[in-house]
Amino acid sequence: MPVITWRRIGEGDFPLLGRWLAQPHVARWWNHDTSPEGVDRDFGPAARGQEPSEDLLVMLDGEPIGLVQRCRLTDYPEYLAELAAEVDVPDGAVTLDYLIGDPRLTGRGLGARMIRAVVAATWTDHLDATAVIVPVHAANRASWRVLEKAGLRRVAEASLEPDNPVDDRAHYIYRADRPTPAR
């Protein structure tokens, strides 16, 4: 079985991110400026260690296939407040955002494998992480199905600010809790 790995993105990855963000299946939900300046503005601070978010370039057998953004919700107080108004957010909660860049790689189970792997690593990478909480727009069926296939469970419906202004506020909230040690 092909191996999924990741590393933090660097500025050298920005042209690839720009191409991925311009793909229709990504652009519909991410709604980012794909110009070099826009990609640098949105991803540069994390790549340079100036922002606490972890932007992870995900690879399949060493070839880039996607991006996972992972961050502690407490590092983004406004976002945490909006989310906590809709659903229980335990101390130490982490959130993710994700994409598969090449449309030819979608629908093959890679997204679920990618998310499952990053969630599992979260428990060792962030020893204080209590839960992974992921809001996803209700209309983004492919995205919330990937979360379900990765083992997250839907815990709420919420009204949240959408990433794309053409969307309404309807979101589903998915969650995975830190596994408890076997007794």
Automatic annotation (TrEMBL):
Keywords: Antibiotic resistance. Residues 4-179 form the N-acetyltransferase domain. One of its GO terms (biological process) is response to antibiotic. The keyword Translocase does not apply. GO terms for molecular function: N-acyltransferase activity. Pfam families: Acetyltransf_8. This is GNAT family N-acetyltransferase. It comes from Streptomyces purpureus.
